[in-house]
Design a protein that fits this description.
The chain has two helices and eight strands; from the N terminus they run αββαββββββ. The chain has an eight-stranded mixed β-barrel. It is about 20% helix and about 30% strand. A hairpin with a 4-residue loop joins strand 1 (about 75-80) and strand 2 (about 85-90). With about 210 residues, the chain is α+β, with helices and mostly antiparallel strands.
Length: about 210
C-alpha cells in the first residue's frame, strides 16, 4: 500500500465513527418522531373519518348499523378510558399500517351496536399502554358516529398469540381489547394481554342482543 492509499485508509477509518453516528442519529430521530406521532400527537393526526349513510339511524337490530362498512384506515371512533383520562383513536383494520394510526378494529369482528364481540388491538408501548393500568370495574367508552357505547371491564387474561378463540363472536354485545405482553418487554413480546368487558349502555334507540 503506497503512502496516498494509506492516508485515504486512515481518513476512512477516522470518518467511519462519524458516519455511523450520523446514521444512528437519523434512525433515532425518525423513530422518535414516529413515537411522538403514535403517543403525544396521536389524537391530532389527520385521519380519514368514516361516515355512515345515516349517522342518526336508529335500528331494530345492530345489523342495520355501519352501512356501508368502514374501509381500512378510516377512523371509526375513539376509545375513552375515563379513570385514566386517556382517549385513543380507533381505525378500521389491524395491519401494521393501521396500528400505527391508533388502535385497530379487527374487520372480522363485530362493530359497536351489532350485538357481538367488538375486537380492538393496539401496541403496548403506544396507544394501549393504558391497559397496563386498567382494573376490573373500570369503564371503557367507545365513541362512534352513532353515539357512545359504554362497557365495564370484567376480567383480564394473558394468552399465547395462537389463542384466536378470544376473537370468536359472542351472543351478546361485548368489547375485547388486546395488546402484547409483557408491557416492559424489549422487542416483539411473546404473549398477548386481553381485556374482557361487559356491555353497560349505548345510544338511545339502538337495540342490543343482551339478555
Amino acid at each position: 500500500m503506497n503512502a496516498r492509499a494509506k492516508r485515504r485508509f486512515a481518513l476512512a477509518v477516522r470518518a467511519l465513527p462519524l458516519v455511523l453516528a450520523a446514521v444512528g442519529a437519523v434512525i433515532a430521530g425518525d423513530a422518535g418522531w414516529t413515537y411522538l406521532w403514535e403517543t403525544v400527537w396521536v389524537n391530532d393526526r389527520p385521519l380519514p373519518v368514516y361516515a355512515p349513510r345515516d349517522a342518526e339511524l336508529t335500528a331494530d337490530n345492530g345489523a342495520a348499523l355501519w352501512v356501508p362498512p368502514p374501509k381500512d384506515g378510516q377512523k371509526i371512533g375513539e376509545l375513552v378510558f375515563p379513570a385514566e383520562r386517556v382517549s385513543v383513536p380507533v381505525v378500521q383494520g389491524d395491519s401494521w399500517a393501521d396500528l400505527s394510526l391508533g388502535a385497530g378494529h379487527d374487520p372480522a369482528s363485530a362493530l359497536p351496536g351489532q350485538g357481538s364481540n367488538v375486537y380492538v388491538a393496539g401496541h403496548r408501548d403506544t396507544v394501549f399502554h393504558v391497559l397496563s393500568r386498567i382494573h376490573r370495574g373500570d369503564l371503557v367508552q367507545f365513541d362512534t358516529p352513532y353515539g357512545r357505547f359504554t362497557y365495564r371491564v370484567t376480567w383480564t387474561q394473558i394468552v399465547m398469540p395462537s389463542a384466536t378463540y378470544v376473537t370468536d363472536p359472542t351472543h351478546r354485545e361485548t368489547l375485547t381489547l388486546q395488546t402484547c405482553w409483557p408491557f416492559d418487554y424489549f422487542g416483539f413480546a411473546p404473549m398477548r394481554y386481553i381485556v374482557h368487558t361487559a356491555y353497560v349502555s349505548g345510544p338511545p334507540g339502538l337495540v342490543h342482543r343482551n339478555p
